[in-house]
Amino acid sequence: MNIPNSELPRVIIIGGGFAGISVAKKLFDKKVQLVMLDKRNYHTFQPLLYQVSTSGLEPDSIAYPLRKILNKSNNSFFRLAEVDQINADQKEVKTNIGTLSYDYLIIATGSKTNFFGNENVEKNAVWMKSVPQALNLRSLILENFEQATITDNVEKRKALLNFVIAGAGPTGVELSGALAELKNHIISKDYKDLNKEEIQVHLLEGEDLVLPPMSKKSSANAQRFLEGLGVHVHTSTFVEDYKNNIVTTNTGKQFNTETFIWSAGVTGAPVKGLQAKAIVEKANRYEVNAFNQIKGYTDVFAIGDIALMQNEDYPKGHPMVAQPAIQQGEHLAKNLLRLLNNEEMKPFSYYDKGTMATIGRNKAVVDLGKLKFGGFFAWFIWMFVHLWFLVGFRNRIVTFFNWVYSYVNYDRAARLIVRPFKHKKVEMSDTD
Amino acid sequence: MNIPNSELPRVIIIGGGFAGISVAKKLFDKKVQLVMLDKRNYHTFQPLLYQVSTSGLEPDSIAYPLRKILNKSNNSFFRLAEVDQINADQKEVKTNIGTLSYDYLIIATGSKTNFFGNENVEKNAVWMKSVPQALNLRSLILENFEQATITDNVEKRKALLNFVIAGAGPTGVELSGALAELKNHIISKDYKDLNKEEIQVHLLEGEDLVLPPMSKKSSANAQRFLEGLGVHVHTSTFVEDYKNNIVTTNTGKQFNTETFIWSAGVTGAPVKGLQAKAIVEKANRYEVNAFNQIKGYTDVFAIGDIALMQNEDYPKGHPMVAQPAIQQGEHLAKNLLRLLNNEEMKPFSYYDKGTMATIGRNKAVVDLGKLKFGGFFAWFIWMFVHLWFLVGFRNRIVTFFNWVYSYVNYDRAARLIVRPFKHKKVEMSDTD
C-alpha cells in the first residue's frame, strides 16, 4: 500500500465520516503515523444530503476531499480502499489494494440503511446515505416530474407525483419539508403544465409522533410545520410492503407511488474479521467499553455509529448521529496519546449539545437542554450551526451563498439530471 | 406529448445547445408555439466542460436547466425526449415519449465526437462532449492518481501518470493546460506521496501547429505557453491506434498511458428521417441554404454545428463553435417571423467576433480581427467573455467566485469522485 515505514506507532482509521475525521484531526502531528482508509475520496456531510436530493445544494457543497483534510499533517496518509477483512491476530487490515499492519486500529465505518429484512422495500425503494444515492434520488424526482407532464392516465400520474417517505426521523422530516417547498415554490415555475395540487407528500412514521427522539413539544411543532407546508403526516403507521408501486401499511392505508423513500432506520456497518462476540447482534454495532475498546480487544477501537457504548444514561448506546461520533473521536485521540505516554485512559462521557431539525425554508425545531423552541429563530440557529460545521472554508461560503439565493428567490439551485436514474437501472448499492 | 393545441403555428426545436437556445429566446412571446426537445434537461456550456473534467468547476456552474430558460415565455414548452425519427411528409417528429406535429422544424442537434473510424480509439479512449462524460474523465484522472500512489511497478505507474491528449484544438489545448496546472499546483499538496515529475502531459496534433484555426501568432504563443507549463507538444503527429494502453503514431513515437483523451474532431449528429441528399456525407451535416433551410425542404431548418452553409467566405461551412450557432439561431428567429408576416427572408451572414483559447490559469490567446495577442490580458478578456456568456445569473456568480478562489489559492474546487469510473465499467456513451 506504499505507506512508508516509520518509528512511530501506526494508527489505521477505517472510515472518513464524522468520527474518523475528528479522531484524525486530534492526532495530526502527534507521535503516531496515521493512515485513513475510505472507499470514497471525500467526507460527506450527511445531515445535508437531503438538500442534494431536492436540488438545493450541489455535492461539492456538502462533500470535502479527505486528502485535503489529511494533508494538514505530515504523518498522515489517505488511501482510497475498501476493507475486506481485519486479521486481529496478525494486527493487519486486508483491503482491495493490499494488506497493512497496525499498532492501533480504529473502526469508524458508520451505519447503513436498515430494511428490517423487508426484501421488497430493499429492491424497490430508494434511500440516501451517500452522495451518489442522493443524486439518484434527485434524478428520480425530476424524471418523475418530466414523465408526469406527459402522462394522461390519472392513476399513473398520481403514482408519479406521490412522494412517500417512511420514517419521520430528522432525514424523513427534512426531506418531506424540502419536497413540500419544491411543490409550493418551484413546480408552478418549472412545470407549468403540471397541476401542482396533484403532488402529494406523505410521511409515514411507526411511532405516534414525528421526530421521536426529540421533546414532545418539538415533535408537535414539527408536525404542525409539516402540515402547514401541506405534508400529510401519518403516525402510528408501519410499512408492510412495497411492490408494483403500492405501499401497504398496518392501518390498511395504501399509497400508490413510484417514489418510495426509505429513511426508517439504520444499522451498523461492521467489517469482517473480528470475533463474533464483538458485535451486538440486533444493533449490528461493536460493543465497546468506556474507552471505545471493542469487547475482547485492547488495540481495536470503534467510534461513532458503529460503536455501541452502553451505560446508565444510554442503556441502548448513544444516538447514531454526528455529535457522539465527533465527541468519541476527539476523546479517543486523547486516550490514545495517554496510552502512548503510559498514562491511564479516561472514560468517555457524552455531552448532549441538543438536537434540531429543519422543516422547509424557514422553520426548525430545537431541543437545547431544557430549552425547546421552534420557528424562524430555530431555523436561523439551525442554519448557523450547519454552516459552522461544514468542513472547509469554501464549502461554507458556497453553501451560504446558495442558501441566501434560494431564500430570496424561492428558487432552488440546480435541477440537473446528471445521473439519469430511472431508465438506466442504476443500482442503489452503497458503493456506487 | 401533452402539448396544448394552439391557433399559433408550432415550431419544434430539437436540441437545447447554443443554437437551439438562441433561436428559442428570440421567439419568446411571438406568434408561435415553441416546443423544445432535448434528451437532457439542461443546457451545457461546452467551452467550459474541460473545467469540470479537471475539477475546476462543478456541473451546475456550466449547466443550466432548460425549463428555467423556456419558462420565461408563455407559449414555450420543454419536453425531455429523445428524437427517433422525423417524418417530413406528415410534418411529424417521432420521439420516445410520443409523436408531435410541427409547422416548422428546427434541427439544432449539434455534433458528436469523430473517431474517423478508429474502433480501438472509440473503445479505449475517453472524451468529453457532455457533463456526465466530463465527470467520468474527472473520476478517471483522480482514480489514476490514487492508483499511482500505491503502484510500485514503474512502467505501470508511468501509464497511470501519463496523460495523452489527441487534438490541439481549443478543447485539447485548454485541457492540457488545466492538467499541467493540476500537476504543478495540486499534486504536491494532495498527493504528497507521488513524485509530481512522473506526471506527463502530452498533446498530439496532426497539423504542424497547435490551434490550427487561429492566427500563426496565436498558435505560436499558445505552444510557447503550453511548453512553459511543462506540456509536451507533438505537432505533425497522427494517432494510428490505441490499445493495451499504448498510443501509436505515424512518427513512430509511442505513448504508454491509461488516459488517452480524444479531442481530435467532431462530426455532425443528424436525426433519422430526412432524405439522404439532405446530408453532406463526409461532414455528416445538413446542407442548408443562406436561410438555414435544409436542402429539399422549406419548413425544416438546421442551425449550428449540424448545419453546413457553404459560401465564398466559408467554402467548408462555418466553424463548429458557439458563435455561428448563436448567430444562426438569432437570424433564423427573425426569418421565421418574416415568413409568418409574408415578408421575404434575409440571407445569413456570419460576423466573426474573434476566437480565443485559454492556457492554464493566467494565459490565453486571442484573435480579434487584425488584433492578435496573448498573455495575461488575453486571459482576462477570455474570463470576462466566458463569464458574460454563461447563461443565468447564479452560474455567473458561482463560477466567478470559484475562479477567484482557485486563482488566489492555486487550488481547485472539488476533487470528488462522484462517478467512480474505472472499476465500474461505465460506458462512455453519449446518452449516459
From TrEMBL, chains A, B:
Domain of life where this protein originates: Bacteria
Domain FAD/NAD(P)-binding: 10-329
Keyword Transmembrane: yes
Keyword annotations of the record: FAD, Flavoprotein, Membrane, NAD, Oxidoreductase, Transit peptide, Transmembrane, Transmembrane helix
Keyword Ion transport attributed: no
Residue ranges occupied by any External alternative NADH-ubiquinone oxidoreductase-like C-terminal domain in the UniProt entry: 353-406
Catalysed reaction equations from the record: a quinone + NADH + H(+) = a quinol + NAD(+)
SUPFAM superfamilies for this protein: FAD/NAD(P)-binding domain (SSF51905)
Signal peptide start and end residues: none
Any Pfam family matching the protein: NDH2_C
Top EC class, one word: oxidoreductase
EC number from the UniProt entry: 1.6.5.9
Family (UniProt): Belongs to the NADH dehydrogenase family.
Name under which the protein is recorded: NADH:ubiquinone reductase (non-electrogenic)
